[in-house]
Each structure stands twice: as structure tokens, then as C-alpha cells.
Amino acid sequence: MERLVERLEKAVERLEIVCQRPGMCEDGSSKGVAQYVQAFDALLAGPVAEYIKISKEVGGDVQKHAEMVHAGLMSERALLVMASQHQQPAENAFSSLLKPISEQIQVVQNFREKNRGSKLFNHLSAVSESIPALGWVAMAPKPGPYVKEMTDAAMFYTNRILKEYKDVDKKHVDWVKAYLSIWTELQAYIKEYHTTGLTWSKTGPVATEGSKSPSAPQAGAAPPPPGPPPPPAPAPTSSSTDDSASRSALFAQINRGEGITSGLRHVSDDMKTHKNPALKNQGGPVRSGPKPFTAPKPSCNANNPSPKTSPKAPALLELEGKKWRVENQENASNLVISDTELKQVAYVFKCTNSTLQIKGKINSITLDNCKKLGLVFDDVVGIVEIINSRDIKVQVMGKVPTISINKTDGCHVYLSKNSLDCEIVSAKSSEMNVLIPTEGGDFTEFPVPEQFKTVWNGQKLVTTVTEIAG
């Protein structure tokens, strides 16, 4: 990793030397490296290098993830170099050019999914949720706001990192600052050079999938000579000529006015079904058009091998360090965690049609990607989070300061008398209800608002809950 950072720094130094030569980089022309490519190299040598450096200090999965992020940024640099030397291609060709970036985004996100048991899972999640920001090159006309939206998606996890390591290890706090600064600087970079979308050269050949973009120059080596231009675009085929002729004929027919109906055949009364009931009783197909699409029926031939199903992940209920892992439980109605401590957290992932009880006082609880899950707990000193789930029921027996519901459809929260001051924060969720205990021991149900009205009052936006009539 140190060698990678050194090469990056030397590459920037080399670019600066090249740009000092006459006629190179002064106007961002194709004679040298474009100005916005230089600015992107400065981003790589600044915030990105700092992020990689601290990630190496953190080590483990964070370091591996950082290498994947760096590979994605280098793929983006290659596209920027190509855009600086080529004219904008057609949409289908541009999609092919974006493929290396989209593949690297997928690699970063898959790494998080394969390491859900990692002790640094919040770090991996912060990166995984925001890495789609690399796709700003395809987000015209507002690439800058798109990057900000992706950065905001990481805030949920970066705040958890700051809360966990604030007074424990400053290195992780610096890691958060270094990582977020990449996207902050990228927003400023986009605002200056690509305000309404990726800036393409107005000269040179049209970019194609076969176009090669030079990578970052190595230290001590002269910049490579430009490669041959791609072959010229193919001449229009005869199909375009036929289309033009067809359109001309169509407009000629329309311009005939009333005469356009002169070629239509007269339909007499005996040919109309509503005036000749005998026609309705005649057999024959009613439809004259093609049959609707139907999925082919699976073959019952014994010689055909049955499709392979992916093996189920093993069910877990174990304590790993300070984290209780409850994963892949199905139809389990008696899950209990009783030996708890204040510093422990519980992470419940992909559990279906199950019930979990957590006794004692615990730091926090997270439900992720669960369906039809019931959770009963005594006391939580931090937060209870419900993410990407459906049909969840949560019952508080003691106290909890905050319950967060994100991207969840169907959530019932049963509060105790001691937890009525609990704050419930929701986003992108529906069918949420809070049940308040009554004196008789029953519960009164109150729906959490989902529809809002926002108006401009002359100075700021004012948002209020919309009452749905009926």
C-alpha cells in the first residue's frame, strides 16, 4: 500500500513537470493532460491518499476495502482521460464505457455482504452505501447533488463509528474524516469542471468501447505517444433511407385530407355484429393478433437435471467478542439471549418468522433484512435500529431512548410505561404503528405519519403532517 501511495505522489509530480513544458496543459487541450484530469489527480494525491494511508493503519477488512475503492477511482480517471480526448459517444456506447466503474462498485458492495460478521462492519457499510457516487459521470444534468445524496447515505454508519470510537481510538475518527473528505472534494471538483454532466472534448474522434485511455504515468517514464484514432463511424445504412421514404409517404397520405378515406371498404349492416346477431354465434377465433406471451412450462423429463439451489447459510446465535450474532434463523419461536452485559450489542440478520427475547441491559440492537420477526427486550441504553425489514413487532419491557426505522414496511412498536419518552425516527418506511399502554393493561394504537405537505412561507420550507381524509 505504501508503494501505491508513493507511485501516486510521483505520478502527480510527473504531471506537474510535463505541464510546465511549452504548449502542455495550459488550456486543457489534447496536446497534454486536460486541466480537469490534473484536478482529479490532485484529488487522488490528497484526500484519497490520506484515506488509503489511514485505512492501512486500521488494517484488516478496511484496508482491503480501501484498495477496491482506489481501483474504482482509477477506473474513473481512465474515463476522464478518454473524455478529455474524445467526443461524446452514443448512449449505448457510453454504457459500455461505464462498465469498468459499475463492476468495481459491485466488487466493493459484495465485499461488505460477504463480511457481515466483521468487527469493522460499520466501516464497510459506510463505504458500500456511498461508493455508487462514482456513477456521477452518468448523472446529467445534476451530478453534484447525486454525489451528496450518496454521501448522506454513508452518514448513518459514519455516525455510528464516531460514537463508538470517539473516546476510544482517534484513528477511526480520522478515518471517517478522511473518507468523507473524498466525496466533499469530489463535489467541489464536479461543480468546477462538470457542473451539468461529464465534460467531453469538442474535437477528436468519437469515443468507442475500443478507445484506449492512458493510465496514470509512472515515475521516470516519458508519457506514452497517443494511439491511433479509432476507425471512423460507419456510414448510414439503407435502413435510414427506407425510414425517410416511409415517413415521406406517410405525410403525403395525411396531406390528402378527406381523400385519405377513399380507399376504405364500405361495411354494410349485415356485416356488423350489433345488427346481425347471427355473426356472434359463428365459430372461429375471436383474436386475430398474436397470442400474449406465456412463460414456457418446465419440462418434466427425468433426464433434465434439476436446477441447483444455493445452499442456505447456517443459523447462528453466538457471542462474538462484544457482539451477539443472530443470523439466518427460520421458524424459531424460542430464541433467548439472557447472559448480557452493558457493553454488548446485538445484530440480528436475515431472520424469518421467529421470536427473539433479549434479557437484561444491552448497548444496542440492530435488525437487518428480517421478515415477520418479533423482538422483546428489557433495556437498551443506546438505540434500536430496524433496517430493510418487513412485518416487525418490537416490544419494550423497560427503557430505550431511541428507535430508528429505515426502509421497513410494517413495524409495530409496543412501548412500556417507562419508555413513553422514547424518540422514534423513521425514513423511507410505511405501515408503522406505535402502541401505548393504558391503565387497564391494553394498548392504544397510533399510526406514524407517512404523508407530508411542504410549503414555502417566504423565508424557508415548512413541512407539516398531511391528514388523510376518509
Largest sheet: 7 strands, mixed
Strands, total number: 16
The helix-strand sequence is HHHHHHHHHHEEEEEEEEEEEEEEEE
Say what oligomer this is: single chain
- How much helical structure, as a percent, in the residues? 25-40%
Roughly what fraction of the amino acids lie in strands?
15-25%
pLDDT below 50 for ≥5 consecutive residues: which ranges? 18-31, 214-241, 284-291, 298-307
Radius of gyration: 31 Å
- The residue-averaged pLDDT reads 80
How far the N terminus sits from the C terminus, by CA atoms, comes to: 63 Å
Q: What overall geometry do the principal axes of the alpha carbons give?
A: globular
Tally of helical segments: 10
What strand order characterises the main sheet?
Answer: 1-2-4-6-8-10-12
| SSE class | alpha/beta
Write the layout of secondary structure elements.
Blueprint: H1 2-19, H2 35-58, H3 60-85, H4 91-97, H5 99-114, H6 121-130, H7 143-165, H8 170-193, H9 238-254, H10 278-281, E1 316-320, E2 323-327, E3 335-337, E4 345-349, E5 352-362, E6 364-368, E7 371-380, E8 383-387, E9 390-396, E10 402-406, E11 409-414, E12 423-427, E13 430-437, E14 443-447, E15 452-456, E16 461-465
Parallel strand pairs: 2-4, 3-5, 4-6, 5-7, 6-8, 7-9, 8-10, 9-11, 10-12, 11-13
Antiparallel strand pairs: 1-2, 13-14, 15-16
